[in-house]
Amino acid sequence: MTTSQLIQEIKRKKSFLCIGLDVDLNKIPKHLLEEEDPIFAFNKAIIDATHHLCVAYKPNTAFYEAYGLKGWKALEKTINYLNENHPEIFTIADAKRGDIGNTSTMYAKAFFEDLAFDSVTVAPYMGKDSVEPFLAFENKHTILLALTSNQGAFDFQTKTVDGKEVYKQVLETSKTWVNSENLMYVVGATKAEYLVDIRKIIPNSFLLVPGVGAQGGNLQDVCKYGMNDTVGLLINSSRGIIYASNDTDFAASAAQKSEELQKEMADILDASSF
Amino acid sequence: MTTSQLIQEIKRKKSFLCIGLDVDLNKIPKHLLEEEDPIFAFNKAIIDATHHLCVAYKPNTAFYEAYGLKGWKALEKTINYLNENHPEIFTIADAKRGDIGNTSTMYAKAFFEDLAFDSVTVAPYMGKDSVEPFLAFENKHTILLALTSNQGAFDFQTKTVDGKEVYKQVLETSKTWVNSENLMYVVGATKAEYLVDIRKIIPNSFLLVPGVGAQGGNLQDVCKYGMNDTVGLLINSSRGIIYASNDTDFAASAAQKSEELQKEMADILDASSF
Which long-range contacts (CB under 8 A, 24 or more apart) does B75-78 make? Predict the structure, then answer.
């Protein structure tokens, strides 16, 4: 999917919501455990109930790998279901991968070809040659970790390197990489005030923003500091939506939570004349 | 496996060789492609031919994920084969994972419980709460990326933070984490001279050293600067061993290459009176 198709979809749906499909078998409604594939059954119900309210889905691969082969199978069924039924929706493999060149190419093939996601999250620690293999794929997007939403972000990301924080160094350096136009960035909502400085470095890039909701981030603040003239934001909510209820009404509850966020987003978009 | 069991095995085999099982279907002998599971058939042959010469095997997960479900299945068969037939061998899932707390726990379960590896490689960018969930598993080891063997290591890892390079900051900070005794570190062989400073910070930890062979690192230098009084090194070779031949003699050729390295290691160990 191209970035302009994503922007078009945001305007059409009046939404820049991304729903995180982080399926934990201990948290999903008990009745689903009787299904042949409870993980996929859960995802399908969530997707069917919410696809008109969001523009992206983001399965975090950890939740699938933890269940071994059946988890990987459920991930494959989920991305195939999305691509077949909702090709207009942007898909994110939240995998936080990154390795030396030829190995990163294998990861890129795994997520862009074998599983056919539109994008994958990548960790920057190993530098240029660990990220460029992902950037080489046309109309695919590499979402680089810049400033994450967790407390550990302050261990290294915000430390000052040559007068500049590590995450800013990551942003600036990444702009020099081949095919850097295929980059997006992870910026945690719990650090909304940082977005002012971030937008000075990457004014035009899309930001994937986790941490709204369960982790305490504020949607209004993120939009105030982070929105650009093509919106430029994908706001992720996982637990706040998919575990809104753990009873038979879980999908309807997820839709309701999604709609609350979508309406808030529509108001923000209207106020900004998008 | 405990660290002292690993040390015992190093002394018994006179080897601190780790063999990287990075299976690329384009590189393995053609006749194996007729097997039902070519990836596992290749790994099994390599393991059968080399297990007496090495103390660790390290499948890089990228090479398995790139083949989707059948790749993950081959990874599962490989770790099960190792655990059943060679429980004395240290196993490393080279996965370079890392995420926020509850998500890292899912990754730890994937590699320590579902796949039952002894260790997993983890990226440090997201800090303390992204790594501690791995450290919580008893007799399991978390191998933190410190200074990697690729060119991109110079993009961020060697940049100076408050008068100290990022990788040194990672080493020092990681020592303060809960259960830090379960940490080992990745340090690339292509930067052997850095080992002097690294050993000042982490004198007792095991180092996983990639980059000997194909990537140009030198075994003698690594040992000179990196060895400690319990050896403290696992030297990885992947392509140099497993692709020594791509004909029907591939396993014998892999054993020969392994033996060359093992003999060099035995000489070094003898000279150091281990």
Answer: B75/B115, B76/A68, B76/A69, B76/B115, B77/B37, B77/B40, B78/B21, B78/B39, B78/B40, B78/B43, B78/B44, B78/B47
